[in-house]
Design brief:
mainly alpha, about 55% helix, 8 helices
Length: about 270
């Protein structure tokens, strides 16, 4: 294996220090994802078939934040390190030490969307399609924050862009956080934007949601081949990682939902089928 690497850009995980208050890049990534995603959602509500009023996203932002944080934390505990937190329950509250799961956050936001749609008498897929378009924005910023923190690094590699991460030993590794930022973030965002802005597929409620689920699952499954498995889990059934196994149901559900939505007649501007 060649040990020619490019330097890891050692960026201080703390972006701003104000006396005893430390603001981390990870927190700023969440804030940027929510705020930019919120504005993108508001813009998309102004396109046909107008199933969600723009002002409703001002209220939904709070629901999305709560669903993401609670779901992400609980998902990490249940999927990735339940024995540890069962033995040390007070550490559940130490969110500043890290430990969030996308799949858990996805479930948390899904519950929030169902409840919000019922409360405001919205068509569920009209809401989920718009939120799905914004999700890759948060994913992109989150993976960049993982890279800045030097966490969730990749497997040993001899590629020209391999890096030696500060806490991952002397071996050069894939910068898998950047792979995920590109696949789950930029590429998926571009595909969904094309589908919505050019092909106008918000007229088929559920199609964009299904495309997001399938697209994320494919990106995550592929990137996991380059990412080091979580040490407390290692490789699981068939040599797969937990991230891959959790993504398989998303892939199947996404393909099924997209096919179902595609077969339905597109909606008109007034939202009537």
């Amino acid at each position: 294996m060649s040990f020619a690497t490019i330097p890891f850009p050692a960026i201080d995980p703390i972006a701003i220090s104000l006396g005893p208050i430390a603001i981390r890049w990870y927190a700023l990534a969440y804030i940027a994802g929510f705020l930019i995603g919120w504005r993108w959602c508001v813009m998309l509500t102004k396109r046909p078939p107008h199933l969600v009023a723009p002002e409703l996203f001002d209220a939904f932002l709070t629901w999305a934040i709560i669903g993401t944080i609670l779901g992400g934390r609980l998902g990490f505990i249940l999927f990735y390190n339940l024995p540890h937190y069962a033995a040390n329950p007070l550490e559940i509250l130490k969110v500043w030490q890290g430990g969030m799961s996308f799949h858990g956050g996805f479930l948390g936001v899904s519950v929030a969307m169902v409840l919000f749609a019922r409360r405001h008498k919205l068509q569920l897929f009209g809401l989920t399609d718009i939120v799905a378009c914004a999700a890759p924005i948060g994913l992109f910023f989150g993976r960049i924050a993982n890279f800045v923190n030097g966490e969730l690094w990749g497997r040993p590699a001899d590629v020209a862009w391999a890096m030696v991460f500060p806490h991952a030993g002397p071996e050069p590794r894939h910068p898998s956080q950047l792979y995920e930022a590109l696949l789950e973030g930029l590429l998926l965002f571009a595909i969904l934007a094309l589908v919505v802005l050019v092909w106008k597929q918000l007229r088929r409620p559920g199609f964009v949601t299904g495309l997001f689920l399938a697209g994320y699952a494919i990106g995550r499954i592929v990137s996991e081949f380059f990412r080091q498995p979580d040490p407390q889990l290692g490789f699981l059934w068939g040599g797969a990682t937990m991230g891959q196994l959790l993504s398989i149901p998303m892939l199947l559900a996404g393909v099924g939902l997209a096919v179902w939505a595609w077969k339905r007649r597109p909606m008109g501007d007034a939202g009537a089928a």
